[in-house]
Amino acid sequence: MILKYFTRSIHSVQAKLIIISLITWICIVLVAGSLFVVHRLTSVTPFHTNAIQYFTYVINDLGSPPDIERARTIFGQTGLKIAFQGDTGSWSLIEALPENNKIRYRLFSNSKTIYFGRYHGRHFLKSTHEKGTFVFEFSGYDKNKTHYLWLLLILLISLSLVLGGAYFAVKKVLAPINWLHEGVKEVGRGNLLHIVPENRKDEFGKLAAAFNAMTRRLHQMLEFKHQLLRDVSHELRSPLTRVKVALEFPSDDQMKKSISGDILEMETMVTAILENARLHHDQANLEKQSSDLAAVVKDIAVSFESRTPGVVFFEHGPVICEFDRARIKTVVVNILENAIKYSTRDSDPVTICLDRHPPWITVKITDTGIGMDKTKLHRVLEPFYRLDKSRSKQTGGYGLGLSLCKTIMDAHNGKIQIDSAPGKGTVVSLFLPLP
Q1: Where does residue 79 fall: left (phi above 0), alpha (psi -120 to 50 degrees), or beta otherwise?
Q2: ∠ CA 77-78-82 to the nearest 5 degrees?
């Protein structure tokens, strides 16, 4: 179990980032240490020269013959222990001075009379002089093993704390990855309402926001499909029922005409449904071309001039952009049909205006008809939604016209906006992106 957890952890992004940080730290230490060694090697010759001069000064300061009392004074000031052996006598301030053959001496730098040696962790310097032989011991170099062990322990604890802090810091920074992982699993289980926290200002926060937007969109698409199935079943049930009833009676011309009308109604509805669904899933295959939008809209407006209360198109000059002529014609015709249908005899003519409002080209269609309740505007673009609760075909359509318009505008990377008020008419604005 522990091995499995370790294997999984070592392959995680957090572990990899920590390992990279550790390797980087080691490389920095190695580079800094190498520079220090190079600096030490380049500065060792001046140091040795100064050291030789210092010990020469100490020997001269001891006098001739060398004075042990002066040596004690120097020891009290510097901690340097001195031993002397010569023709005028010998003395030593070094406790348990090892014999010369036990100390491994080597020549000190470029000097020919000064030797450096070690013995059981003790450091000595021997100088041959005309006065005799001097031996110096550096008491400050005595290694306190317990002290260094404590330093090593503190170093290890400090390094562990640094690595631990780095681990938790990296874990906190990468926490959104775990949230996204849980979110993906929830989506895989079918829970499209799962929300990933978005309380971050960095790239992970943007990724979480994009993930939530994606799941919301997927949920809306599935809800659209479910609603579509419910509405289709509702809309087809009535004509199918009428067909079944008609088949129970003797056949005559009137009955055949009724059945044919119901079948035509179902064919028309199915065609509209398939067209709507095809545009939802085949948006990339629009036949876009650079055309004069004003000319297309004007041709449509002319075809509606004879219908009450009439259509007025305000000239604005050529408006060139890329669009699918057939699809945009479908949109404009659908909206004009609704505007005419819900206008009264006393209504003003329907007006069409084109304008540029970067980054959009706007087609605004305005009528002064019966209008709509503002609380219902958000639903009029849904499939099969009709303001007529009786769903009577006398009002025309199946509630798919505006839904199809929205689908076509979405396919053009545009949008459709509806503003209305009861008794004051309706304004439908179509937005197409500027080239």
Answers
A1: left
A2: 105
Kindly give the interhelix angle for 401-411 and 325-341, rounded to the nearest 10 degrees.
150
pTM metric for this prediction: 0.48
Is residue 411 in some structural domain?
yes
Q: Which residues of the chain have pLDDT under 70?
A: 1-14, 16, 39-48, 108-111, 139-146, 148, 226, 228-235, 244, 247-252, 274-285, 387-398
Total domains present in the chain: 2
Q: Which of 414, 404, 417 is nearest to 331 (CA)?
A: 404
Longest dimension (CA), the chain: 154
pLDDT of residue 229: 65
Q: Is 275 inside a domain boundary?
A: no
Q: Is residue 354 part of a domain?
A: yes
**Confidence at residue 19, expressed as pLDDT on a 0 to 100 scale:** 75
Distance CA 97, CA 330 (A): 111
Q: Looking at 98, 115, 142, which one is the last position of a domain?
A: 142
- State the CATH number of the domain containing residue 397: 3.30.565.10
In a domain, 176, yes or no: no
Residue 187: partners with Cβ closer than 8 Å, 6 or more residues away: 194, 215, 218
CA gap 201, 333 in Å, rounded: 46
Can you give the residue range of the structural domain that contains 17?
2-142
